[in-house]
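Late entry, evening session. Most of the bench is empty. Finally got around to the prediction I had been postponing all week. Sequence below, unchanged from the version circulated by S.P.
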Amino acid sequence: MDLAYYYELWRGMMLSKEAGVADALSWWQTFFVRFYQAFLEGDRWQQYLRGVGTTLYVTALALCLGVILGVLVAMIRTAHDQQRPGRRNFVLGIFNFVCRVYVTIIRGTPMMVQILIMGMVIFSSSRNFTLVGALTLGINSGAYVAEIIRGGLMSLDQGQSEAGRSLGLNYLDTMRFIIIPQAFKAILPSLGNEFIVLLKDTSMISVIGGQELIYAARGIISRTYEAMFPLVGSATIYLFLVIIFSWLQGKLERRLRQSDRR
């Protein structure tokens, strides 16, 4: 009686162990099949690479446009704010008003709405959705970069500008050789954060058909009906790119600090 009881108990444990092993094997088989479908079948990894290339291309275009707009707007607003009392320039005041409206509208409306307006209203006849997305991201980034740069310029003592003028430099030369190099070191961390946000925001242009990384992932999801691996893979790629960018930013900051010590 006791032997039969222990035998049945042992048999039940072995069957449970075999079932656990079978479940583990089944999980790994499912994992491999879904991984294979998301990245290897039909060389789908190449679609991710093309998406990364487009993402970096859009980021570079938007970055260049954002910096140009940001510097221009920041210099106009700083020049207006630093005018002496009673010596206001009317034309500069008009440009300052336009820049303030631009910054207010861009910072006060969601990025997604701006992309949809640009893609479906302003450039509705265009089929180059990637370029439209890059243009929108650049315009959006320009407003934030402008405020970052303006904050850095306004934080410097106004005696720096007066010293440049006393040396015979005009306003542009004073900004170029004296003010901006000093302000750049102070605003570099904020600019780096803005550029990282810009890199991640490229994922939004997929809503109008921009063929970047998330667009590639969504295309694979529509064929495999499995969302986890394409999305987790895309998130991992974005994380890897951000880590590289942060490392480069930190390296640049260290070099600037070393040049200060010298």
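Two things to note before I forget:
The first helix runs from residue 2 to 40.
The chain is about 85% helix and 0% strand.
Will write this up properly tomorrow.
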